[in-house]
Design a protein that fits this description.
Uridine Diphospho-n-acetylenolpyruvylglucosamine Reductase, domain 2, Uridine Diphospho-n-acetylenolpyruvylglucosamine Reductase, domain 3, Vanillyl-alcohol Oxidase, Chain A, domain 3, seven-stranded antiparallel β-sheet, five-stranded antiparallel β-sheet, 18 strands, about 25% strand, globular, binds flavin-adenine dinucleotide
Length: about 450
């Protein structure tokens, strides 16, 4: 993606450059064919207020995008208005109060770099150009989120333009119901966030990564071991298993055990990743990378280059699971055996959520997170790869407790992403703030566990 440098304009659908401007909002290179009637490239909050007032007057439904990283291209709908928030990307930092104020179009890496100047930190996404707009609404699984909480738990306030075209503030003490909804409703949120108020933290002194690489024949042993030790892995470590057809260093299908760690000293970081070197799998690894220093920005840039290159065609899906590993393994083996070529990949995150979270719309997570990312370059390969992630996740859905909205695929496979109680509460809040259904909701949803 590119940071916008031009001044935003409003384009009607018959204007020259309309299609390019609309498709330019998407990270996913696929064109679903849907087009809004009008595109508003907002420059500030007053543009958003004016846009919503026009949408009310002309009875247009509204879609919103900030960084356009929704894999489903959730903001591309037929007809109505699309508001592009990417130009609202300013960052201000109040070091004394440990607060940052950032626009929804702010890139993850830009917030990270700005905070670094003041030795501060926020659990940003693992990708350079994912924007705060969509990231914070859906939850936000970021760097050090196992320690600092979901990124949305570090949001202390939002400035929102409502369906009435009013700019209001929402926090624990003001419009608290809207604030509750904004933390977890993701692409179903019913307002336009123009600014986030964020709690920021002291920056961990050390960021490092340790890895072990295994051939695919060890899949069952590696996953069983990872599941066994998952609960003991220190929360400073994001314990991930990545399946690719060209594993790092061995260039054949394999499993990468990746252990990024954020700590306050090298001694602690070494101790925290020592479970890797003590593990019984160590001798079976084809490659072992000891703990090396690397910044969160560099890690994000490396991931962008290797597994998240731009202008690819994507189809992704996911599930949270508390099922025993032996029940998951047959499905994971099938996924590994059918894995499309690089940069397609599979992630298993040993997540182990805390016993309690803040009271907010976000409400489903599990012990393990499994996400499938199918990516390919040419339209002619759509038929070959477009259903890979969806079909495997459909098959394994009896083992799932729900899905994560970060990697949602609701248009193709509606699934549950919130508890029934929270969904009912969210519907009531939506009816209060958006009684006419001005804003698009999720593309598909299943309310209750079947
Ligand atoms: C390469 C890549 C890496 C990723 N890495 C991570 C990760 O590490 N952790 C993680 O948790 N997620 C990750 N994600 C998922 C990502 O957080 C979501 O796709 C998120 O929605 C992206 O936000 P965005 O603003 O860039 O996308 P958009 O597509 O612009 O936003 C998604 C949806 O959010 C809503 N929305 C966006 N902006 C606003 C606004 N200002 N006001 C109201 N509603 C709005 C709209 O409904 C929109 O359709 C990743 C995605 C990609 C493509």
């Amino acid at each position: 993606m590119k940071r916008p440098t031009d001044r935003g304009v409003t384009l009607e659908c018959n204007a020259g450059g309309f299609d390019d401007a609309v498709l330019g909002t998407c990270f996913n290179g696929r064109d679903p064919g849907d087009r809004p009637k009008v595109l508003v490239q907002a420059n500030d909050a007053s543009d958003v207020v004016a846009a919503i007032r026009r949408a009310r007057r002309d009875n247009l439904k509204v879609g919103i995008c900030s960084g356009g990283h929704s894999w489903m291209q959730n903001h591309l709908r037929d007809g109505g208005m699309l508001i592009d928030m990417s130009r609202l990307n300013r960052i201000e930092v109040d070091t004394e109060r440990r607060l940052a104020y950032a626009g929804p179009g702010c890139w993850s890496v830009d917030l990270d770099k700005r905070l670094k100047k003041d030795k501060l930190f926020f659990p940003i996404a693992h990708a350079v150009d994912v924007c705060l707009g969509g990231y914070l609404l859906q939850g936000g699984f970021g760097w050090n989120s196992r320690v600092l909480g979901l990124a949305c738990e570090n949001v202390v306030g939002i400035d929102v333009v409502t369906a009435d075209g009013e700019l209001i503030h929402a926090s624990e003490s003001e419009n608290a119901d809207l604030f509750w909804a904004a933390r977890g409703s993701g692409p179903g949120f019913f307002g336009v966030v123009v600014r986030y108020h964020l709690k920021v933290h002291p920056r961990p002194k050390v960021t490092g990564i340790a890895m072990q690489i295994f051939r695919m024949k060890h899949l069952e042993e590696v996953f069983a071991w990872a599941d066994r030790i998952g609960p003991e892995v220190p929360r400073s470590v994001e314990f991930q298993l990545l399946l690719t057809r060209k594993a790092t260093g061995i260039f054949v299908p394999g499993i990468e055990i990746i252990a990024p760690v954020l700590a306050h000293s090298w001694k602690q970081a070494r101790e925290d990743v020592s479970f890797l070197t003590r593990g019984p799998m160590k001798s079976k690894a084809s490659l072992r990378v000891p703990l090396i220093p690397v910044s969160t920005s560099l890690l994000s840039h490396m991931a962008a280059k290797r597994i998240f290159p731009p202008r690819m065609r994507w189809s992704v899906d996911n599930m949270w699971s508390d099922a025993p590993m032996e029940r998951l393994l047959p499905g994971i083996r099938k996924i590994a055996d059918t894995l499309p070529p690089m940069p397609s990949h599979v992630l298993m995150l040993s997540w182990h959520p805390p016993a309690k979270r803040q009271d907010m719309a976000f409400s489903i997570e599990g012990r393990n997170y499994l996400a499938l990312y199918g990516e390919w370059k040419h339209e002619s390969d759509d038929a070959k790869y477009a259903n890979w992630a969806t079909e495997h996740m459909r098959e394994m859905s009896p083992l799932s407790v729900g899905i994560q909205l970060a990697d949602e695929n609701l248009g193709r496979r509606p699934a549950r992403f919130m508890t029934d109680t929270n969904m009912a509460r969210l519907d009531a809040i939506r009816a209060k703030y958006d009684p006419d259904g001005r804003f698009h909701a999720w593309r598909g949803r299943i309310d209750r566990a079947s």
